[in-house]
Design goal:
single chain; about 350 residues; four-stranded antiparallel β-sheet; binds 2-oxoglutaric acid; binds fe (ii) ion
Length: about 350
């Protein structure tokens, strides 16, 4: 039997104020970033910018995260501790990789979902009417499991070490964030360790390149990344400030309304994935998002903090009650993941 991917029950209504606010007491910590942010039109400031991370006041940070995850499923993380230089180097290395002759990239063609994915060969939207996504990608996973593929040191010196260091640093930010998410659910900070999600996590990272110059000869709708939700716990995304990312808060509403997610220099854009949505019984939202085909070339790096493959995802006790029963049956992450991966490549 196929795993059940979407809830059968109607969407639970969530009581919360409709507008998340940018944290009010914007201290001196990130003056330039925040000053720039405040120049944006008011409607673009409604997301949470988590600037005090990690913070001595974990409970107020957790409260802010809770509100953002309920209302938007997306927030920005600044002061995340991943060195700006390292982020710059990863983007440089990403550009170096995608600039290689296609024959060289093809030597690293995906095996086991690791390595190079050519333009149009993945489609994030399982809807049969959409075309493959206009982006190329390089995917890697856990550093020690032996499945990753790497360009040669000769072709791209220091490539592997830069990308691996970045993976490790972002993974550790993700783990810290998960303990705050656990707190935000009124549960123990080590909740996700206790649930086995972090025993052997299948965290994946994608270096993504949207060429920006593809020609649409057919009249088909083409996306850089077609509409999808991420299937893990949380995603930490770094972008190069070229716009294109959009979210749709209500996937079932027609016509769908898409809002831009403006870039915030130096910040990770964090979003909730399907596993977190299931754990929280849809209280935290795994929001539909997409990337428009950019007019100009665009690079991003997405870190998908996924649980261990044998982790069973089951509604958390603080997220259900007699009047609000679990909306999904328990599911093993590997079963869920296999089905979603099958749909990604089913062109
Ligand atoms: O490139 C981006 O901005 C978003 C990518 C994304 O959503 C994904 O790969 O899951
Ligand atoms: Fe995504």
């Amino acid at each position: 039997m196929r795993p059940q991917l979407s809830p059968k029950l109607p969407r639970m209504s969530i009581t919360c104020s409709s507008q998340a606010k940018v944290c009010a007491d914007l201290t001196m910590k990130m003056p330039q970033v925040l000053a720039k942010w405040q120049q944006k039109p008011k409607e673009k400031q409604k997301w949470l910018v988590l600037y005090n991370f990690p913070s001595p006041d974990r409970f107020s940070t957790a409260k802010a995260i809770r509100q953002a995850c309920i209302e938007h499923g997306f927030f920005y993380l600044v002061n995340h501790g991943v060195d700006e230089e390292l982020v710059k180097k990863v983007f440089e290395q990403s550009r170096n990789f995608f600039s290689l002759p296609v024959e060289d990239k093809m030597k690293l063609l995906q095996r086991n979902h690791r390595g190079y994915a050519r333009l149009y060969t993945i489609k994030l939207d399982p809807n049969p009417s959409t075309k493959g996504d206009a982006r190329e990608a390089f995917y890697m996973g856990p550093l020690a499991d032996g499945h990753n593929q790497w360009p040669s040191e000769e072709d791209l010196p220091s490539w592997r070490s830069t990308v691996e260091t970045y993976y490790q640093k972002v993974a550790s930010v993700g783990t810290k964030l998960l303990s705050l998410i656990a707190l935000s659910l009124n549960l123990d900070e080590d909740l996700f360790e206790k649930l086995g999600a972090l025993n052997d996590p299948l965290a994946m990272m994608g270096l993504l390149h949207y060429p920006g110059d593809h020609l649409d000869s057919s009249n088909e709708e083409i996306h850089g990344a077609s509409a999808h939700s991420d299937f893990g716990m949380i995603t930490l995304l770094a972008t190069d400030d070229v716009p294109g990312l959009q979210i749709c808060r209500e996937k079932s509403e027609q016509p769908q309304v898409w809002e831009d997610v403006p870039s915030l220099s130096g910040a990770f854009i964090v979003n909730i994935g399907d596993m977190m949505e299931r754990w929280t019984n849809c209280m935290f939202r795994s929001v539909l998002h997409r990337v428009l085909p950019p007019e100009q070339e665009r690079y991003s790096v997405a870190f998908f903090a996924n649980p261990s493959t044998d982790c069973i995802i089951e509604c958390l006790e603080s997220c259900c009650s007699e009047s609000c029963p679990p909306r999904f049956p328990p599911i093993k992450y590997s079963d869920f993941m296999q089905e979603r991966l099958r749909l990604l490549y089913d062109l």
